[in-house]
């Protein structure tokens, strides 16, 4: 079988790229190990989606099909330092109607999947796993474990942070494990969250409460491995008490409404995200600490930019040419590196135990809160508009 673009990995990044290529002359194949399934109740994996990515999801025809009752706008953010400092941003002060939206991962994945299933220029291979890549000057041939062979002009690795495509193609990745887990769980709260996303920089990591529709929040607690293991082992009522307490009981008592889960965290840099006839997108191309909430936001922008370049490419120019793919790499490098660097530095600043640093960083937060230019820079970081 012969295609123009073969995408390995139908996570949010791979699915959004496939959707963005819907109204093109390109013949696409999507290879995915397992199809996404809806989660009963509230998915503990939620994402803060930036306005730029809400627009992208709108453009590819997905946003309007999402259940509006489950999309929660973020009107403001409160960031608490470890020494009493506080930094606040609001959509109103920044001249925006929302700073972003909180959406469940499975909600977006299922909707993207439904779109892709109906796409007439797309062949869906699922469940399917690749076993070999053969590169030649004119094409790439991807062999699946069931023996099927897919020939293509361009192979996309959208297969997540342990990307098989990246490894098999020999593209290097530089990993910096944080020795931390991101623990996630959802809670019902006693007091209304008023659409405010809250974050606490604490001695034991970074705790975020993201507003969910209704009186619910989603927690992401990035904390050292041992602390995460201890939290994961706590009975429900003890966990609720500890989470409420860690957030200064700002929303009153909490009641757990989803299973807790924990993910290992690492910074991953990929010096080269393209090769002849091959490009990486999403977590296959970069890993970032979740304190910024920008992982999938970077992935959606990879998909948007790559789809734009492929669509604009004249028919007589090869879409697998290294020249075109280098343009994609250049277009994505600055935002990715800046976001990784800023997030990594912020995390380090709050993890350092040097004497005198704690008061200094808290004074820094208070000063930033009072200086509009600095604050504006941070709002741009928070909404992914560097
Ligand atoms: C605790 C935590 C909280 C986070 N919070 C946020 C947040 O608030 N905002 C945000 O933007 N990001 C957040 N992220 C990051 C976000 O989860 C990732 O950036 C995002 O899921 C990456 O999507 P992806 O499609 O690139 O990869 P994945 O979601 O990993 O998808 C990869 C897909 O490829 C498939 N696959 C893998 N290998 C193969 C193979 N060999 N053959 C076939 N199929 C294969 C998999 O089945 C999967 O469907 C968070 C991450 C963590 C750990």
UniProtKB/TrEMBL annotation:
Its cofactor is FAD. The keyword Oxidoreductase applies. Signal peptide: none annotated. It comes from Candidatus Propionivibrio aalborgensis. The keyword Flavoprotein applies. Keywords: FAD, Flavoprotein, Monooxygenase, Oxidoreductase, Ubiquinone. Pfam families: FAD_binding_3 (PF01494). Belongs to the UbiH/COQ6 family. It comes from the Bacteria. GO terms for molecular function: FAD binding; monooxygenase activity; oxidoreductase activity, acting on paired donors, with incorporation or reduction of molecular oxygen. This is Ubiquinone biosynthesis hydroxylase, UbiH/UbiF/VisC/COQ6 family. GO terms for biological process: ubiquinone biosynthetic process. PANTHER family: UBIQUINONE BIOSYNTHESIS MONOOXYGENASE COQ6, MITOCHONDRIAL (PTHR43876). Pathway: Cofactor biosynthesis; ubiquinone biosynthesis. InterPro entries: FAD-bd, FAD/NAD-bd_sf, UbiH/COQ6, UbiH/COQ6_monooxygenase. Residues 3-334 form the FAD-binding domain.
């Amino acid at each position: 079988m012969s295609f123009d673009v073969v995408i390995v990995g139908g996570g949010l990044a791979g699915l959004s790229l496939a959707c963005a290529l819907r109204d093109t002359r390109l013949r696409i194949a999507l290879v995915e190990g397992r199809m996404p399934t809806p989660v009963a109740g509230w998915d503990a994996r939620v994402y803060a989606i930036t306005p730029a990515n809400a627009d992208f999801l709108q453009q590819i025809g997905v946003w309007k099909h999402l259940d509006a009752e489950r999309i929660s706008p973020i009107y403001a953010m409160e960031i608490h330092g470890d020494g009493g400092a506080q930094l606040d941003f609001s959509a109103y002060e920044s001249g925006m109607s929302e700073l972003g939206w909180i959406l469940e991962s499975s909600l977006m994945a299922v909707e993207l999947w439904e779109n892709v299933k109906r796409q007439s220029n797309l062949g869906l291979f699922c469940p399917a796993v690749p076993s070999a890549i053969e590169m030649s000057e004119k094409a790439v041939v991807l062999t699946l474990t069931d023996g099927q062979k897919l020939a293509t002009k361009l192979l996309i690795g959208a297969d997540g942070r342990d990307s098989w495509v990246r490894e098999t193609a020999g593209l290097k990745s530089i990993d910096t494990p944080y020795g931390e887990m991101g623990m996630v769980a959802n809670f019902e709260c006693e007091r209304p969250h008023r659409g405010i996303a809250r974050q606490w920089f604490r001695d034991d990591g970074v705790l975020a409460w993201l507003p969910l529709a209704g009186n619910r929040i989603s927690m992401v607690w990035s904390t050292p491995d041992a602390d995460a293991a201890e939290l994961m082992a706590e009975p429900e009522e003890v966990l609720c008490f500890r989470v409420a307490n860690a957030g200064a009981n700002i929303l009153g008592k909490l009641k757990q409404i989803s299973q807790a889960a924990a993910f290992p965290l690492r910074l991953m840099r990929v010096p080269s995200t393209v090769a002849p006839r091959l490009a990486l997108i999403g977590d296959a191309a970069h890993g970032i600490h979740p304190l910024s909430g920008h992982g999938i936001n970077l992935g959606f922008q990879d998909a948007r930019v790559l789809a734009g370049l492929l669509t604009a490419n004249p028919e007589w120019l090869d879409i697998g040419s290294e020249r075109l793919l280098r343009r994609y790499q250049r277009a994505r490098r600055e935002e990715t590196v800046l976001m990784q660097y800023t997030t990594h530095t912020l995390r380090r600043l709050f993890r350092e135990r040097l004497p005198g640093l704690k008061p200094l960083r808290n004074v820094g937060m208070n000063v930033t809160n009072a200086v509009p230019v600095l604050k504006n820079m941070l709002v741009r970081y928070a909404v992914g508009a560097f």
